[in-house]
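User: I've been trying to design a sequence by hand for this structure and keep getting stuck. Would you show me what you'd pick, starting by listing the structure so we're on the same page?

Assistant: Good idea, let's start from the same input. This is the structure you sent:
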């Protein structure tokens, strides 16, 4: 079953009801984090601009919320690697950003709504991470915290996420 296709315009998309909490402006605050099962990739939102361009934001959840998290040096390096290497596979990437909770990334694409292609893009990018010999822009001139990196840690995260590739479409436990 592919949870991804639940409509983003009703509560089913957000998962099981969260009646005890008011509706929030931030989509992820309306997601019941106790009901999801990482790893997964889900559409977190679509924003359409005045000229019709659409930004599709995906929740790439690597770690189980409130149970585990990525260590900052590994997460930081994976961010650099994915941000750089993903653009070798698509010119639709707008941004790849780590979640503050350190459990995943947001992946934003413009005018690209093919979920299976997004999964393929992430798979190719993570395989590139496994082949990387260095972290791009890992220096004080190009990075705000150049001392906080771990190429091997990033590879370990990528390897673990790729090992569960068949689970990426199943969001809820």
């Amino acid at each position: 079953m592919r949870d991804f296709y639940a409509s983003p315009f009703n509560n089913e998309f957000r998962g099981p009801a969260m009646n005890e909490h008011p509706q929030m402006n931030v989509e992820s605050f309306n997601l019941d984090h106790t009901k999801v099962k990482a790893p997964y990739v889900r559409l977190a939102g679509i924003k359409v601009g005045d000229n019709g361009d659409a930004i599709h934001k995906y929740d790439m959840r690597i770690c189980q919320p409130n149970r585990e998290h990525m260590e900052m040096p590994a997460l930081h390096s994976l961010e650099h690697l994915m941000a750089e290497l993903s653009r070798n596979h698509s010119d639709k990437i707008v941004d790849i950003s780590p979640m503050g909770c350190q459990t995943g990334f947001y992946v934003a694409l413009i005018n690209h709504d093919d979920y299976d292609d997004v999964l393929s893009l992430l798979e190719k990018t993570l395989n590139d991470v496994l082949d990387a010999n260095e972290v791009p822009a890992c220096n004080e001139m190009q990075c705000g915290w150049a001392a906080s990196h771990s190429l091997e840690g990033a590879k370990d995260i990528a390897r673990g996420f790729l090992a569960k590739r068949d689970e990426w479409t199943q969001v809820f436990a």
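That's my pick for every position. To get oriented when you compare it with your attempt: Helices lie at 11-14, 72-85, 115-131, 151-163. The two ends are 11 Å apart (CA to CA).
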